[in-house]
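User: Good morning. I'm curious how MD3 would be positioned relative to this chain. Could you predict the structure with it bound?
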Amino acid sequence: APQTIAPGAVLLPGLARAWDDALLHAVDTVLSQSPLQHLVTPGGYTMSVASTCCGPLGWVSDAQGYRYGALDPRSGQPWPAMPPVFMELAQAAATQAGYSGFQPDACLINEYVPGARLSLHQDKDEKDLRAPIVSVSLGLPAIFQFGTTQRNGPTQRLRLVHGDVVVWGGPSRLAFHGVLPLADGHHARVGRKRINVTFRQVRPKR
Ligand code: MD3
Ligand code: FE
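Assistant: Good morning! Here's the predicted structure, ligand included:
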């Protein structure tokens, strides 16, 4: 059953578990076209998380800064298509969380190996901040940290396991969030890693 974890943020425990085979195949299809890479931040730090994208828009980072763009800068080609199973799960999750009409145009795939982490940040480069972000966790469990719209506000921790889906909308959409260093372990379907897939609506809808 859906669980509200913060204003506008809804955890759908295990929703993606029934789809995991199809999701993991879809991840492999995307990675075969646009492999994972460790992005370098505009400040010159190489991220411990490896990432790639699919769908009309992808997340690009270089000396110019961060932005969404239609082309994978490595190939000069459009990002791989969003696999249908991704779109179906993202829309089902948004609907179950009470956000109708979710039309994601960007999908980020993040891979965490043991020790990888994501420091506290806000996602605010999407034009339509009324749309939620849908996140799907696969593989090893992670401790997710989230706070308020103020960097130094109070934070909560949430353990996310294989198949969990969280829909972050409303007042939680601009909350600071991050992932603590991944603990070592082995997952029967995914191996020694965690895969997180996020769906975003970047272009304003009309
Ligand atoms: C809460 N990824 O890619 S997903 C990211 O587990 C990112 O890989 C994390 O943060 C991960 O930007 C967390 C959950 C998530 C994504 C976006 C959010 C939570 C969010 C935006 C606002 C509030
Ligand atoms: Fe984020």
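The CA atoms of residues 57 and 69 lie 5 Å apart. The chain has one domain: 3-200.
Let me know if you'd like a different ligand tried.
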